[in-house]
Predict the structure.
Amino acid sequence: MKIGCVKEIKAQEYRVGLVPMHVKSYLQGGNDVFIESGAGLGSGFDDAMYAAAGATILPSAAEVWKKADMIVKVKEPLESEYQYLRPGLILYTYLHLAADEALTKIMLERQVTGIAYETIDVNGTLPLLKPMSEVAGRLSIQEAAKYLEKPFGGRGVLLGGVPGVARGNVVIIGGGTVGTNAAQMAVGLGANVTILDTNINKLEELDQMFNGKVQTLYSTPAVLHDQLTKADAVIGAVLIPGAKAPKLVKRDDLKLMKKGTVMVDVAVDQGGCFETTHATTHNNPTFEIDGIVHYCVANMPGAVPYTSTQALTNATLKYALLLANHPLEKAIQLNPCLKSGINTYKGHLTNQGVADAFGMTCTDFATIA
């Protein structure tokens, strides 16, 4: 198979979908690897490193898209890349289709095989989403701490406080991978940390993990509203795999909050869990509504590409090699978990969460394979 990797064109996205040290793994399976010139520079990998590993460097993205049977990316295609989508092409990347109806429709129209990192499910876990959730969770506290500074529009609160002065209050909505990693960073800074979730088992696990250093609360609207009145920073960390994130913090809730509070919506890729969320970029990361600072960057891990790219590609390589070395149906037989990653196939939508988001029909992959 011909494997292609192009430079990401989303604003301030510096990650790359394939690293030089993995090229040999593809070649050993009899595959060819094509890299767009400059694709890895943002993550610290130059063309010479790819060439030395055995990849062919092509001067333009268009040439890579044209040659490749499978494109390995980081982010979903942007509108300018729709022209390259064609029947039979395998697109292996973060897709987040439930938040992008236009892309969903074009992938169905062009009969692209869309395999989404974020929906590959292994025994109830999302191993390809996990490394970026870890990065985003940790970054969420770094960014919250920065934008709490007065010059950036925040309340002027130091999360860790100092002797004689109260610590900042961090409220984390959702106790999954993002929430857990956010809590680790916030605790490390010395903040008062509260985690809200509706899963009692998860709350028990977090209570034991942090040995009483965080407060865990069962999330109800009343509890959430109470915590919003106390918060200096709010981290939105709720995920429903493949589906749109629920809007848990409403516009009217902002009136309950202290002016200059910072809200970081890590769920923005899936539409966000704040009603006031809209996607921003690293170049212009925040906006203010009713005196509340919103940080809603849709590719947070892209800010630390050297770390993020290696963490991501370590997780994605296993499944990429299955796709490269075997026909799709055979790859699924070898690892049935891969099936959950298929979102579009031969013009059919095969992910229920995406179908629910747009009122479309979901077709079982097994009936069309």
